Amino acid sequence: MTEKPQAPAMRVPLLDLKPQYEAIAPRVRAVIDAVCASQQFILGPEVRTLEARLAAYSQSRFGIGVSSGTDALLLALMGLDIGPGDAVITTPYTFFATAGTIARTGARPLFCDIEPETFNISAAAVRTFIEQECERRDGALVHRASGTRVKALMPVHLYGQLCPMEPLLALARESGLRVIEDAAQAIGARDAGARPAGSFGDVGCFSFFPTKNLGAFGDAGLCVTADEALAEHLQVLRVHGGKPKYHHAFIGGNFRIDELQAAVLNVKLDYLDEWSQRRAENARVYDVAFARAGLEAQVVPPPALPGFHHIYNQYVIRARERDALREHLAAAGVGTEIYYPIPLHLQKCFAYLGYRSGDFPQSERAARETLALPIFPELSVEQLNYVVECIGAFYSAGARAARA
Q: Helices (H), strands (E): how many in the chain?
């Protein structure tokens, strides 16, 4: 008789949003009821409140609520007049929307490799790219191979940790580039000078997808900027470019954030720092447990840069035998995810850019080796230690011998 597989000793999902909702449900239901009673669903008082609060939170002057993090990036590109014949420097190791929005404007994504420790774009790689593959023509920076005008730099604050922005900003100033921060995973993250994500560039772009540290009940996003004229332009662009209504000097899109989503986010914003702090505490539990387990040769935990405030939107390790480890953890009841298994320069839709395997070795290595572990605030210490115990069991001498 075939034996039934043994049930896992514990279950640790990658993410469970239900405990978070249960803790704030009365407040959320009350604001939803209030919006429904008002019947004001488009760009109402909840949107204006959220825009002001998040602009202040991000040390920016203006907030422009939009329909998603993807639309925040697209709106920023459109607001800076980036389109056909232009190019934007960014990273190939990120969510698709980063380069996808660049391509949607008709512009060309130009990739530079990442730092192996943080997975964020390398300022040294950007400098090398500008010096070796670009030139000045008629006052503009031009990518020699494609002939496109390089107009912007789009760094991504990946997994909840800021890129060191000062060297990137210096490069942008030297080269006359605008800066769009993809801060979709980094709201509340700060550098060693306590400067927050979104406050460095011409525009900062946030996502409130439900899995984020500050998550809506669906899609939502926000742009922040210190430039008043640009903020007004973005506000008009998000309503089809119409100002006054039915008068269109340029083409925009329908990028408005919903009043209901803004109401939910206004409630959740009160808890954001507490939730991010719990994620950081969970990360420290992992760090200690990995050190205690003696897995240095098999697992590399994600480092926090000295003095930086990491919000741990994800806790991403490097792991030997990553795919087999993931299968082992799934059997043990532990949820994981691979971000991102195919770097953008190797995606089929970007084949026209002409990149090949080996062009960005650190991005390709990260795609092969990284694994995200559960990190959400409501996890118990017992669950976190169980995850590390399961990883240790996978790499134990007996388990290695069995796989051999």
A: 13, 12
